[in-house]
Amino acid sequence: MNTSSTQQWYALLQKPFFAPPAAVFGPVWAVLYGVIALSFGYVLVQCLRRRLPWATFLPFALNLLFNAAYTPIQFGLRNNLLASIDIVLVLATLVWTMAAIWRRVRWVALVNVPYLLWVSFATVLQLSITWLNW
């Protein structure tokens, strides 16, 4: 994926008035990936130690898969529609993740609230971009 042509492509997309500058995304995701690594990693270790059932990790794994797929879909394929479907799946699996862990390890759900807020915003943003560029 050519970075300059990708940046140019994204810059030319119509965006809603509430779209932040592209430079905001990197720092926000850097912080969120730290939270994700800490909390999702904790759940994985607890599953490996058999302190949590493996079914608890399923939504975490799916969330990581959909999250990892977003950038190649949006910026590699440059496919707004598939990126919209993917970000909705990121949001849905994150809600499922938080609900699945709430009773067992509440701090994991709570520490992911900023991730939930950002993905909710990103979902609205992506759906808006898809609509505006249809």
How many DSSP helices? 6
Q: Taking Cα atoms only, what radius of gyration do you get, to the nearest Å?
A: 16 Å
Number of domains: 1
Q: Number of DSSP strands? A: 0
What is the structural class? mainly alpha
Helix content, binned percent: over 70%
| Major beta-sheet overview | none
Order of helices and strands: HHHHHH
Low-confidence stretches: none
Question: How widely separated are the two ends?
Answer: 23 Å
- In round numbers, the mean pLDDT is 96
Task: Please provide a written account of the structure.
The chain is mainly alpha-helical and 134 residues long. The chain is built from six helices and no strands. The chain has one domain. Helices cover 79% and strands 0% of the residues. The longest helix is centred in the N-terminal third of the chain and has 24 residues.
Write the layout of secondary structure elements.
Blueprint: H1 3-12, H2 25-48, H3 54-76, H4 80-102, H5 106-111, H6 113-132
Please provide a brief summary of the model.
The chain is 79% helix and 0% strand. It has 134 residues and is mainly α.
List keywords for this structure.
79% helix; mainly alpha; single chain
